[in-house]
Amino acid sequence: MKGAAAVIDSAEAFAEQARLRLALAAMDEVGDHILNPDMGPFAFAKRPPRDAAVLIPVVDRPAGASVILTQRTDHLTSHAGQISLPGGKIDPEDEGPVSAALREAREEIGLSPRAVQPVGVLPTYLTGSGYRVAPVIGVVSPRARIVANPDEVADVFEVPLRFLMDDANHRRQSRIFAGKPRYFYAMPYGERYIWGVTAGILRLLYDTVCR
How many angstroms from the chain centroid is the CA of residue 157? Predict the structure, then answer.
């Protein structure tokens, strides 16, 4: 990719590259099943699939662009303690995935929708637990105020976009689930272990925008 360093060090440059790539992208559904073709989409779902959206918040910092991530609280009923992107189910009153992602970001980390410039939506990511996730790329104002909702979020932190968009940091790992190895992406960053759906969506971002 021409000018790769400039693209991943600037949120605006990254957004411009993302718009160009999304306009040309084949918007096929991807997801957990790509690394686990024998399991198929929604392999562990116990109900019909639900639509959801997450925000990939990219923000400029003096050291370069970064992505805002959260660590879920330990008392949640699903994915407790895991690292995630702000997001959740698309509600009937939402006007679509962008609206849902912005609403969830406001509820989870106090991020005002006015502080986010939506860039576009990546291909739908299907999860084994039964969600069709629309990943929304958004450029966040560096002046945006972030306040974690203690009912859902234990911590809010940032990871350099340069690190996340480096293929060398994308590890393919596995765990035994239902008697079989289940493969997934992981992107360990210091003491943070980014894996599963979150890492899969960030890998999708890399495949779509930076590859």
Answer: 14
